[in-house]
Every structure is written in C-alpha cells, then in structure tokens.
Amino acid sequence: MEALLYDKTLNCPVCRRDFKSKKVRSRKLMIAEKHDDLNIVYKEVNPLHYQIFVCPECGYTGTEGEFEDISPVHKKIFDDQVRYKWKERNYGEKRKIEEVIETYKLALLTAQLFRKPKSYIGNICLKLAWVYREIGDHKEEEFLRYALTNLQDAYQQEKLDHASINEITTAYIVAELNRRFENYKEAIVWYTKVLDNPEIKNHRQLQLKTREQWRLAKEEYDQHKNAV
Predict the structure, then answer these.
(1) Fewer CB near the terminus (10 Å): N or C of the chain?
(2) Do 124 and 222 sit in the same domain of this protein?
C-alpha cells in the first residue's frame, strides 16, 4: 500500500507554512465494488482518507479543491476562533481511520465556520458517512441524513456547476438517500429530476443507473403502499 501513497507539498494560505500531506496514486487503484450512492470501494487504499488537508501549524483545514481558496474575511475569522487555540498535530503521514474521521470533522467545522455552501458541506458529510460505512459504524446513517438535508437544500438554493458538484449528481444522491431512508415517493420524484435534465444524455452510465434505481424505488413504493 505504501507504493500507492506519495507526499504532496502544500503552503498554508493562513500561516504560510509549508507542509506535506499524503495523496493516493489513483491511476493504480483497483475497484472492489461500487455502491448505489456512488461510493467506490477500492481493494488496497481508500482515496477518501487523504482528500482533506490539515495544516499542522495552525489547524486550517479544507478539501483539496478548496484548500487555497480563503478570503481575508475568512482568514480573520479563522485567526480569531481557531488558530490561536490550535495545538499542533500532524495528519501528514499514513492515516489511521480515527485520524481520517478527525480530518473530515475538522473540515466540516471549518466549512460551517466560514458558512460554506450547503453543497460543499453536504459532500463532506456524505464522504464522512462513507468512511463510517467502511468500519461498520452506526454514525454512517447520521451523516447520510446530514448529507441529504444539505444536498437537497443546495439543489433548490444554489448554483451547482462544479465538476464534482453538479445538478445531475446532486439530484441522484438526494434520490438515492431518500430511497435508503424509505422515502420512496420523494426518491421517485428526484430520480425523475435526473432523467428529465437535458444534460443527462452526456452522462450515459448515470442515466442507466438512475433508470434502474427509479424502477427499484417504484417497486419498493408499491410494496410499502400495499402493506399498509
């Protein structure tokens, strides 16, 4: 597994310290299975374990895509509420699962402190739920529910145009999480949003998967209705 990890050097935008954090050589990974909510399980190392960067000096935390993006206002907030209370700790080596969970919770706290978009917060909650699933922890459900609430609000209130946070993927996740929580009627509505999106033709695999899950939700809804 060590061969799949490498050191990435970063410069903290808050304290300006250089530090190293592990990253995964994704091209060398082998997929073990795919879950219906788009979680991918790999055979050797989970890339989710290394998607959060934490500065050991000041504690500034963020996802890879957002780490360098901090405004002067947010920097001031972080300085006042976190930086000078932080006790130096290093997440830059191979991470134990407890450390992975800590990094996601730090990222979540930072996002909430900065009032980041609900789409961003929802995706952190979703990935943290997947980490809990990996170890069979019941907190998976708690964070899936947080993810559902935030992503549903994000779809209705925010502009979703990032590669990893777009309307189609967000609507699918909302649909699938509703189905998991036995909200079958709501799930059907959200799967339909995915299929009705004009851009779905550019996402053939997701289109096929959505049709499959729509049929499953419809069957589950009918069974539940008949059982009442």
Answers:
(1) C
(2) no
Pair 175, 87 in one domain? no
Tally of structural domains, the chain = 2
11-25: per-residue pLDDT in tens?
Answer: 999 999 999 999 999
- The tens digit of pLDDT for each residue in 124-151 reads 999 999 999 999 999 999 999 999 999 9
Its domain, for residue 177, covers: 166-228
Both 177 and 106 in one domain: the answer is no
DSSP E strands, the chain = 5-11, 18-24, 31-34, 40-42, 52-54, 61-63
Q: What is the DSSP string of 47-108?
A: GGGGSEEE-TTT--EEETTTTT---HHHHHHHHHHTGGGPPP----SSPPHHHHHHHHHHHH
